Description:
This protein is mainly alpha-helical and 138 residues long. 87% of the residues lie in helices and 0% in strands.
Amino acid sequence: MTADRKKAILFLSITFVLGLLIGALLPGFFWHMRHGAEGREGNRMERRGQRPENHKTRFEHMMFRVIKPDSAQAKELRQIFDETSGKIEVLQSGSNTRMTEIMDSMKMKVNPILTDEQKKRFEEFSARARERRLKNER
Length: 138
């Protein structure tokens, strides 16, 4: 084997290994850039089974994570966050109910115009959207 051929094989091998490393590390880098510390903390909580179970505790957890209050502040802030969270839940519930009414009204107007295949696709889309709204209400 000649020296030039050995050199070419070496460079090809190095290029291959660098490509593998870049391919393996780049997605994680971009995820980190997009989600930052909040994403990492959320994943740690899920792995430990500490994901807040309802809107109130998720909201409170998020606010504590942002503000980082001391123990004296936490007592006062918890009351304010409870009150605010309740108001947000009422607003979201009413908004979701109104959204469902509006979408149902639109569906009644659109159905006579659509073909059977279009009606089927629209119904599947509506069902997925309804599931997401219900999931977000929890």
